[in-house]
Amino acid sequence: MPEKIMKHAKGWLNSPVLPILIAVLVGAFGLTLNPYTLFLLTRIVIFVMLIVGLNIMLGYSGQFTFAHAALFGVGAYTTGLLQVHLGLPFVPSIMFAVVLVTAAGTLLALPALRISGIHLAIATLAVAQAVTWVLVNWTDVTFGAGGFRAPSLRMFGMDKTQTIFVVSLVLTTAVYLLVRQLLTTSFGRRFIAIRDNQVAAAANGVHVTRVKAQAFAISAAIAGLSGGLYSSLLGFVAPESFNLEQMILMKIMVVVGGIGTMLGSVIGPIVVLTLQEWLRDSEGWLEIIFGGMLVAFVLFLPRGLAPLILNAITGKFRSQSVDDAPQTGQSLNAAPSENRKDEEAV
Amino acid sequence: MLDVKDVSLSFAGNQVLNGVDFSVQSGEVLGLIGPNGAGKTSIMNVITGIHRPKEGGVRFGDTSISRLPPHQIASMGLRRTFQTSLLCNGLSVVENVMLGLEPQNSYNIWSALVAGKTARAWENEARERSMEMLEWMGMARFADRPGQSLSFGQQRLVEISRAMVSHPDVLLLDEPAVGLTAPRVEELAEKIKSIRDNFGTSILLIEHVMQLVLSACDRVVVMATGTVIADGPPEEVTRDPAVIESYLGRGYYVES
What we know:
The complex is a heterodimer of chains A (346) and B (256). With 346 residues, chain A is an all-alpha fold. Chain A has a single domain (2-324), classed as ABC transporter involved in vitamin B12 uptake, BtuC, CATH 1.10.3470. Chain A has helices at 2-14, 17-30, 35-60, 68-86, 90-114, 117-137, 139-142, 160-183, 186-196, 198-203, 208-234, 244-257, 262-278, 283-300, 305-324, 335-345, and strands at 148-149, 236-237. In chain A, helix 3 runs parallel beside helix 8 (160-183). The two termini of chain A are 33 Å apart. A six-stranded mixed sheet of chain B has the order 6-7-8-3-9-10, sandwiched between helices. A four-stranded antiparallel sheet of chain B has the order 2-1-4-5, with helices on one face. With 256 residues, chain B is of the alpha/beta class. Chain B is globular, with a radius of gyration of 19 Å. In chain B, helix 5 (117-137) packs across helix 6 and helix 7 runs parallel beside helix 8. Chain B has two domains: 1-77 and 168-256, Rossmann fold (3-Layer(aba) Sandwich), CATH 3.40.50; 91-165, no CATH class. Chain B contains ten helices and ten strands. The longest helix of chain B has 21 residues, at 117-137. The A-B interface holds A 178, 181-182, 185-187, 189-190, 192-193, 195-197, 199-208, 214, 260, 338-339, 342-343, 345-346 and B 48-50, 69-71, 74-75, 79-80, 82, 86-91, 95, 98-100, 102-103, 105, 107, 109, 112-115, 119, 122-123, 126, 138, 141-142, 150-151, 153-154, 156-157, 162-163, 166, 180, 184, 187-188.
């Protein structure tokens, strides 16, 4: 019986119902907030989408890149500039941005086909710095270091923050569910396989090159989409929103939330951005606290907050089942002895 | 079936393989033995496309495979295991085995994103076939465990399941008996022979544990310093003075 409950609880956690329910609640709650608080909440929502994408690269397929903030920036700039320069509406602008950033991200996969680890980090860092340089210096198009005013989106009689909040919430929920689904399939297994062991993956017929390119493309498409939304939320787009410091902040979100977990991609931005807002007035402390946090998590909680939370939820059912069925040999606590027996049988 | 022709390989000027020449016949268990550094694993890496030979080549059936990438060679029906077991830690046991079916998987990303019909059908089929393979290996009860929670010997069996799930024509095993006690080695030998009998798979077995070589192999190739020094039935090869000199040692004798 408790096994059944546990299975049930797990099935429920994995169904789309829970995320949609949470999104609806957050939506209803968000629309009651004042514009400033709603701005902060929307920022979190957009970053959840971005980190879901970044986690595919860092967490699932183990590609250590530093170009994500730049891709996010290209998405924001493209969406904003197409509206400003060409007078295009928001929707085609952001769609074009997604296509462009996906293409750029896939090109970025080229160095990753030959190099990995620290070398890949440096190569992508160089690309990111080059992008920032272009944003600052190509003043005719990008308006340089001062940035530019991006048009805001307004729909359904809501004000601009409410509109972008609702649009971001719907799209983030959709991206979350689609990515979570994707990761349960062969695509997800291939990502994990190239992260854990490329040689073994290839020896089992996994086309490593193609899988890497897929990880980069999907991750970049999400960065482009979230960047476009971010430009509309900010209303003002400038290079410093997409520089190396932002990249490091994103990495902290991934590590704090839980690298390679879907739940972690949600928790990370919530924790980091809330903390950032709290510490807004003590600017100098912020870097020290985030730096310290990163070190502390890597040392003491390398898998981040997500496993702790998941254990707190499912662990309750687990302990119940162990108490109820100590003699059946079915419960988890019976496994170690079975384990030993089988070892003998090998 | 699998012909290694005159293969030479060198790393940074260091000649690792020097004109290696042997073939694996259809339905045969071929042992490959030799001292450390003889080039056994290197030749396996050449066969599976990890290294490209400097000279010579490898033919699989009628096709030359020595210039193909590893994943393509694997999808042609040539699978291997590694000296140190390489399961993916992020995947459960059954998911590790499902990885072995990758080349046969053809559904696209759109189907995967929305859990479409083709994706679901393939996922179910892959899981079923992987469970069957684990069942056959006697490992089905561990299906949902993370790979790293298993003992060394068990991980090896999962790795063999992963290599065998697609029913390849050739299976290459790199020291599968490392760390196993004598009775377990005997069971492994039985397992290897029944893989051949059940699936008709030809097997190339690199091994130092002579007990396994003698009880599982139909034929043995002996390598030393990058060349083949003997090739024949196990009982003949183990009496070869050159083999005794370079590998088995003078104190070696074969129990009959």
